[in-house]
User: Fold this.
Amino acid sequence: MPTICTGDKVLVSGANGFIAMWVVRKFLEKGYAVRGTVRSVDKGKYLKEYFKSYGDKFEIVVVEDITKEGAFDEAVKDVDAIAHTASPLYMTAASVDELIGPAVNGTISILKSALKNGHGVKRVVLTSSIASVLTVGSDKIFDENDWNELVLREIKEQGDAALGFSKYRASKTLAEKAAWEFYEQNKANLKWDLSVLNPPYVFGPVIHDVKNAEALNTSLRHWYDVILGISHSEALLKTEGSGYIDVRDVAEAHTLALEKEAAGGERIIVSAGSFVWQHWREYYLILQNLTNLSSLTIVNS
Assistant:
């Protein structure tokens, strides 16, 4: 299918989020126009101020509840592509449905709207996660053909008693599965194709509206707490880790996923490599010694 080019308009859902703001910024820097969705007028004020230098190249629309049928019906009109980043990410959900409902229904909602009213849409890129690919604790080498079936069995067996991380992983897995199922079932009637990005831990500079460390998104707050010694053990520092990627590279991946024809119909793992928490801690201590840094400060830049 034809892909987008400079000057086209991209819809970015959940535009005030950690990853999403970098996605918006990257598209604007590359000469695209962007329409961002937020849940309220107040949540859009910071974005309007931050991106004011782009004038009418950036606009905000309010979608109060992404899970509602037709929630994105107006937002998808007259755009050339969609980057769907909006999905809940926190580890304290009391029930399974608290995460899975919004993740799955929000994804299907925007795809239905794209089918119904997205007459100019050429491609949809979905921000999924490596959580939908790999099984934690396995020595297997995973690739884009794999699915996290173990966490789905865990959720089915344990229900609301499952760990918060398991609920999150299940929400990402089920949301992505639902997206591919919708795409395959409606392919004959679609003018657009689907591309999915599967990043691991996403770290990097903060540009979204964050007043203090307590307001950081989940992945950055985890990093912050471990590196500053707020919540860690020696065993965790030395033995535990995961894959990671810089948020700016994730943003670049979104632009490439919409620009490159070969990305259509693909799941794409995007990762910079692996880490052990102790490595980040050592880097922080080195910087602290070099700069007399007494603490980390949250700066929007």
Remarks:
- The radius of gyration is 19 Å.
- The chain has nine helices and ten strands.
- The CA atoms of residues 3 and 259 lie 5 Å apart.
- The mean pLDDT is 89.
